[in-house]
Specification:
The strands form 6 sheets. This protein has a 4-stranded antiparallel β-sheet with strand order 1-24-23-22, with no helix packed on it. Strands 2-3-4-5 form a 4-stranded antiparallel β-sheet, with no helix packed on it. A hairpin with a 7-residue loop joins strand 11 and strand 12. By secondary structure, the protein is mainly beta. The longest helix is centred in the last third of the chain and has 6 residues. Keywords: Metal-binding, Zinc. It holds the Pfam family SGL.
Length: 287
């Protein structure tokens, strides 16, 4: 296992864009968007500062993204800068957390209170016409999201209380009929970012646990990938064949002894091939 990229305080939201062969991820607290391309087994990176907190960046095309910035969804172009802005949250005590696209190319984003107030979190969806709706509420730290390969099941993560939920996807694309598939007791970290493979298995990065654990769709533990730093935040499948597991990490809330013990905290880790292939992720507006 090797690491690459600059140190992030809170690395999150890794995405592999197959069209450009580019991995992107963000440093939430640093307000930075990172890009990396794979050359053989080496990753070459570059960084753009957009403003903090930056919870996610989703490709629209080769140069344009929808970014979750503070309380807003914002279109940002490497050529033209910031464009259309949609405010989702009315309080600066709450920020966006995690952003993904569903199989219909719609933007999904979570929100949470800075002080982790129970019940203050929610999930929102932005429709193709630009309308934004709150779909799920009452969460504490809504986090990783992912869809089954056939698009019929949506998975959501709540880092607090430590749960992954599977939802049936209704005819309109909205989640219904929730059922808990993973319930963590916190003794080995809490589920954070999520990736789904082509067999429908769930790969969850456990914050504070230093690992990514693979669960079957029913929640049975299948595999575990240990990462040599404690704050594993999210993961995705990258590379031309989407078969390399990459894991974002952070340094947030690690004290001085922990940072000394784990000096490569905050890097992105390439776990290589782990016997799985990730589902292909859609760009914004694609189906």
């Amino acid at each position: 296992m090797t690491w690459f990229g600059p140190v992030s305080t809170l690395g999150e939201c890794p995405r592999w864009d197959a069209a450009t062969g580019t991995l992107t991820w963000v440093d939430i607290d640093g307000g930075t968007l990172h890009h990396a391309t794979l050359h053989g087994t080496d990753w070459r990176t570059r960084t753009t500062h957009l403003g903090a907190p930056l919870a996610g960046a989703l490709a629209v095309d080769d140069k344009t993204y929808v970014v979750a910035l503070g309380t807003d969804l914002v279109e940002w172009s490497e050529v033209d800068g910031f464009g259309e802005r949609t405010r989702l949250l009315d309080s600066d005590a709450v920020r966006l957390n995690e952003a993904v696209t569903d199989p219909r190319g719609r933007v999904w984003v979570g929100s949470m209170a800075y002080d982790w107030t129970a019940g203050a979190g929610a999930y929102f969806v932005r429709e193709p016409d630009g309308r934004v709706r709150q779909v799920i509420d009452g969460g504490t730290i809504p986090n990783g999201m992912g869809w089954s390969p056939d698009g019929t099941v949506m998975h959501t993560t709540e880092t607090r209380p430590g749960r992954i939920t599977a939802w049936t996807v209704g005819p309109d694309g909205d989640p219904v009929e929730p059922r808990t598939v993973v319930e963590a007791d916190g003794s080995d970290g809490a589920p954070d970012g999520l990736a789904v493979d082509v067999d429908g298995n769930l790969w969850s990065a456990f914050a504070g646990g230093g690992h990514v654990t693979c669960f079957s769709p029913s929640g049975r533990v299948l595999h575990r990938v240990d990462v040599p730093v404690p704050l594993t935040t999210s993961c995705c499948f990258a590379g031309p064949d989407r078969d390399r597991l990459v894991v974002t990490t952070g340094t947030k809330r690690l004290d001085a002894p922990a940072l000394q013990r784990f000096p490569e905290s905050g890097r992105v880790w390439d776990a290589g091939r782990v016997g799985a292939v990730g589902v292909e992720l859609t760009r914004v507006g694609e189906e």
